[in-house]
From TrEMBL:
Keywords: Membrane, Mitochondrion, Mitochondrion inner membrane, Repeat, Transmembrane, Transmembrane helix, Transport. PANTHER family: AT03939P-RELATED (PTHR45678:SF5), MITOCHONDRIAL 2-OXODICARBOXYLATE CARRIER 1-RELATED (PTHR45678). Belongs to the mitochondrial carrier (TC 2.A.29) family. It comes from Meganyctiphanes norvegica. It is found in: Mitochondrion inner membrane. InterPro entries: MCP (IPR002067), MCP_dom_sf (IPR023395), MCP_transmembrane (IPR018108), Mito_Solute_Carrier (IPR051028). Solcar repeats lie at residues 6-96, 104-202. Its main location: mitochondrion. This is Mitochondrial glutamate carrier 1. It is a multi-pass membrane protein. GO terms for biological process: malate-aspartate shuttle. Pfam families: Mito_carr. GO terms for cellular component: mitochondrial inner membrane.
Amino acid sequence: MSSFKFILLPKILNGGIAGIVGVTCVFPLDLVKTRLQNQQIGPNGERMYNSMLDCFKKTYRSEGYFGMYRGSGVNILLITPEKAIKLTANDFFRYKFTTKDGKLPVTSQMAAGGMAGLCQIVITTPMELLKIQLQDAGRVAAQMKASGQAANIPKISATSITMQLLKEKGIFGLYKGTFATMTRDVSFSVIYFPLFALLNSFG
């Protein structure tokens, strides 16, 4: 049991670092995806963004380099505890599901991964909700700026959105969309962890 605890810390640190690097690399793409999905189509079919490239250009032009990372602070702040929960849960359930003769069948590995993904949504569901709302707030602000309403653009932050959701809907307001997040994270973890263990065994 002591060796199980001993190897946990480096996995958490490595997972946290990998998560931060991953957020930094892919976040602009995620922001563009969110804005393309949420853009409003005008009465004559006009769109604010015509393509991914057009969205990149307009976002960079109106909000600068850091505008491409609007909402990323929430992810970076929560990515380490998310990875910690996922890795800890996976290792814990793999430890529990290992048979007395030291074997861990593939089905048990998949079950351990699924349980890890289930535990992960405690962090990922509110993180996804806040991230999407912050990303979309940038789109709304850009539209208001383009229409000459820059003075009326509200100040929006992760803290203000969190407090508004808590005030209006309580703690459960942060967990809107849990089922969709659970479906994604559990199915991913069921495949990812056994596959990672298999590839790691070849080394």
